Amino acid sequence: MSASSCYKNCQPASIGKKIIMAFSGLVLAGFVFGHMIGNLTVFKGAAAINEYAEWLHAHPGLLWVARSVLIVSVIAHIWSGVLLTIENRIARAGGPAVEVTRQASLSSRTMPYSGVIILAFIVFHLLHFTFRKIALGGQEFGADVYKMIIAGFSQPAVAFFYIASMILLCLHLSHGISSVFQTLGLRNQRWRGRLDVVATIYGWVIALGFISIPLAVLLGQLK
Ligand code: HEM
Fold this sequence. Notes:
Elements: H1 12-39, H2 46-57, H3 60-92, H4 98-102, H5 106-109, H6 111-130, H7 145-153, H8 156-183, H9 192-218
Helix pairs in contact: 1-3, 1-8, 1-9, 6-8, 8-9
The protein binds protoporphyrin IX containing FE.
Protoporphyrin IX containing FE binds near residues 32, 67, 126, 130 and 210.
């Protein structure tokens, strides 16, 4: 579903969807950065992350504005992604863009699959840490987010599921950000290599930032 798969051959309607996909993706990429920075306060100790979580919940107006932007972005991203995937499939079945589509890289063709797995991860994650309905052994944590994170990642299967999901998130983000540069017309011959490096670094910074938390719990560095 990358921009490269219909670069130069896109219909105006596809370009509109690509722009929606790019901007909603940028909002989501910005959210994961902010969320990662917030979560990294766990390394400063229980008080720091609990205060951060309490501060968020003490500002419900702000929280709901952020949640609304997030929900609209997720819906727009999925809607444009599904339609662009269908269009690409039709093109691959013999439409005019068939040659260009064949050249699409493996990572671009696997974007819909990594997207679906990340969506499943988010559903799991919301049930885990926001609604606190699964994988917490039925314990109550109240405002003690620190204790909840330690309890959550003390189960190796849960910690490894998060780590594997973050690696997929990295691949999805890296390719997605390259596609944004392409949609915005920045990924020309001169800049392509450098922008792809920026996108790859962004994906790995996010993934490794998140991974450090379950890994530190597994290794007994956070307890
Ligand atoms: C090690 C990785 C992660 C940790 C430790 C973590 C931690 C948390 C915690 C503690 C909450 C609940 C906050 C509260 O209600 O006080 C939360 C909510 C949330 N997380 Fe994560 N998170 C991680 C990764 C991710 C990733 C990768 C995504 C997105 C792809 C994500 C998306 C969300 C969303 C959408 C919410 C709900 C925010 C809201 O309350 O509206 N998280 N996370």
